[in-house]
Amino acid sequence: MSECPLHGAGVRPDYLVGRRLEQVVASWHLYDSEAPSGPLGVWLINSDAFATHITSGSDWCLIVKTSAPFVGYDMAESGRVEVAPINGETPFVDHLGETVLAVSEEGAPDSGRLALEISFGSGRVRCETWSGDLHLSSK
Fold first, then answer.
1. Secondary structure of residue 69 in the 3-state scheme
2. Per the structure, how many domains does the chain have?
3. pTM assigned to the model
4. Could you tell me if residue 7 is inside a domain?
């Protein structure tokens, strides 16, 4: 995989293969009473209590790194970021308790990772960046 010039290569997500997805935590930008459009990032917590953070970089790359979920924070008039376990807000909820069977990546030579697809026995979740936003979809 090509390395992102700003964020580096991150971790090779193939270490997820063979591990069971136990929990997913997500961060959301909340502003007034507007509903969030999607998570800013997700942490996949596997059967070894190891957390993998997937998020979009400021240069539109897809960042995949190991880190524990952070605490939410207030941004005053710009809203707040909340971090909490998911309750059905992402496609990963359909795969809780399942083992990761395969992982594939897509990238570009000058910008690094652009997409990551994680396969489970019951389907796949695609993580990608669109105009700097993280997008998650089921396949």
1. coil
2. 1
3. 0.89
4. no
Give domain status of residue 97, yes or no: yes
**Per-residue burial over 77-111, b = 16 or more CB atoms within 10 Å of its CB, e = otherwise:** eeeebbbeebeebbbbeebeeeebeebebebeeeb
Each residue's pLDDT, cut to its tens digit, for the chain (139 residues) gives 567 767 777 788 888 999 999 999 999 888 887 777 779 999 999 988 889 999 998 778 899 999 999 998 999 988 889 999 987 778 999 999 999 999 999 888 777 888 999 999 999 999 998 878 899 999 8
Residue 129, domain extent? 13-138
Asked whether residue 8 is assigned to any structural domain, the reply reads: no
